Amino acid sequence: MAVLVVAEHDHASVKDATNKVVSAAKAMGADVDVLVAGSNAGGAAAAAAKIAGVRKVLHADGATLAKQMAEPLEALIVPLMANYDAVLFPASTTGKNAAPRVAAKLDVMQLSGVIGVEGADTFVRPIYAGNAIITVKDEQAKKVLTVQPTAFKATGDGGGASVETIAAPSGPFKSAFVSEEMAKSDRPELTAAKRVVSGGRALGSSEEFHKVLDPLADKLGAAVGASRAAVDAGYAPNDYQVGQTGKVVAPELYVAIGISGAIQHLAGMKDSKIIVAINKDEEAPIFQIADFGLVADYKAAVPELMDELTKAGI
Amino acid sequence: MKVLVPVKRVLDYNLKVRVKPDGSGVDLSNLKMSINPFCEIAVEEAVRMKEGGGGHAAGAATEIVAVSIGPEQAQETLRNALAIGADRGILVKAEGEVEPLAVAKLLKAVIEAEKPDLVILGKQAIDDDNNATGQMLAALLDWPQATFASKIVLHDGKASVTREVDGGLQTLDVDLPAIVTTDLRLNEPRYASLPNIMKAKKKPIDVKTPADLGIDVAPRLKVIKTAEPPKRSGGIKVKTAGELVGKLKEAGVI
Questions:
Q1: Which of A61, A63, A187, B146 has the fewest CB atoms within 10 Å of its CB?
Q2: pLDDT value at A241 more than 90
Q3: pTM score
Q4: A278 and A256 in contact (C-beta within 8 Å)?
């Protein structure tokens, strides 16, 4: 059995999500090849070749793949599937965008957001924003999966796979990249961060959100996240949103400040190792899942926490 | 321009699903069902294209057709779309779970008959959370797609779509006809007014079956177990920030 993993990368290197999806592929008991589809992505292909246990890296390089858009990825991957039993995408916006196109072209029903692999054809995934978990048997000849990276441990480096160059699709395609506006930050990326500090609607304004959370995040070396309520209220940009409809994170430490803990938020962070909740409402649902809860107004509690961290040498 | 908007009937988003004790599925009996929130946003955007608003000129859309695939009661979901402002409905009557691949095939058949210039769908349904139907439909039609839209601008036979992607926003130009899927921040759907709800009752709904469209909707995947998510047991309450820092040190996370 052979599985193709579609790498998540920024052309220069592969993202940790790739190593995690490789782990999911290995759990299927398969030979694992990694596809790096990009532009001037030699760096990412070389990095993918170092992932332990990867058999081969396929590297497709061309202008049509510069933004890893859905149509060129479909054109590239569908013919490759003659050689593979399954293709696994990270459940990133890139993967979620392209995977169903590949599945439809192969006449295959896709499994989305897989969080567990119980063999070559049995998978676990959440439905209803994580309020139910289904185990699904997929006996289709070809399988297409998006995999929730946070549910798997990253495969380390130490491999030495060969890199095979393959042709990039030439197009033309009916969609064209116009522009992008990426949030610039010196902080770690939200989905890859070891620590996350998140704020909710209780923060009350964009100024307050940043005034309270940014120093704490900087002190902890954490990424900043937000609840949907805070994003909808305009306190934080949309790419901060943690939850079923936003980003799914599983850091070692998640600090929820002024977040009540709506079901859809919990679905995005409940796999964090340690959850801290600071909220003045003792009845807030977030306390039901928090390892350490502090019933307090964040206005007093966050400065105190900053002081205590300083005292502790952090 | 004709716009087609598929809509799905799902468990109301305010309700929490119950897993059946025997693990055979979820129990939806006697629970309120509503239009999927992302589909509602899709209908609202189409209606703004017709009425003007949300950056669209009035008359940009000339006709809006809502389509639902589901049981007889999915007529209510279509009436909801008609009350927001869609002109007519098509119900493809199918009982039980219909997977996104089959939905995409049914929609393709409807689209080949209706020939819309733009199809707007929700990015995902809040029941099965697949996030797949729009992309699958685009592939089956060989149309371009712009998923997770937070802004749509129509111009010169194209749609300029701003997408919510990891790390920020991306803008694409897609040639029409195209598939667009909606994200949460595209618009805030209106509450349908009582007169519009009454008017919606008189708008036509055409009923078809998968057999009429020549599509096999048998599921490809087999759900062998449905379970509650593992419970995360609540921890302890700390009294002070100092105690919290101590606990975090003990846990080895700072």
A1: A63
A2: yes
A3: 0.93
A4: yes
User: d(Cα B215, Cα B108) in Å, to the nearest integer?
Assistant: 10
Structure tokens at A58: 């396929």
In whole angstroms, give the CA distance from residue B39 to residue B147: 13
Task: Note the pLDDT of residue A191.
Answer: 85
Q: Give the best residue of B136, B148, B162 to mutate against chain A (max A CB count within 10 A).
A: B136
**A:36-75 residues touching chain B, CB 8 A cutoff:** 67, 69-71, 74
Residue B233 above 80 pLDDT?
no
Mean pLDDT for B11-32 is 92
For A176, A197, B137, B220, the CA distances from B174, given in Å and listed in that order, are 6, 37, 15, 31
Length of chain A: 314
Mutate which of A96, A212, A232, A273 to test chain B, going by most B C-beta atoms within 10 A?
A96
Helix, strand, coil % (nearest 5) of chain B?
30, 30, 40
CA distance A267 to A126: 9
The interface predicted TM-score of the complex, written ipTM, equals 0.95
pLDDT average, residue stretch A110-125: 97
**What's the confidence (pLDDT) of residue A118?**
97
Whether the predicted pLDDT of B232 surpasses 90: no
Read off the tokens for B47: 């209606």
Closest CA to B216 of B94, B54, B87: B94
What's the rounded mean pLDDT across residues B7-12?
Answer: 96
Cβ contacts of A3 within 8 Å, gap of 6 or more: A25, A28, A30, A31, A32, A33, A84, A85, A86, A87, A88
CA–CA separation, B175 and B37 (whole Å):
27
Spatial CB neighbours of B92, under 8 Å, sequence gap ≥ 6: B67, B68, B69, B70, B106, B110, B208, B209, B210, B213
**Residue A172: burial class (beta carbons within 10 Å; 0-12, 13-18, 19+):** exposed
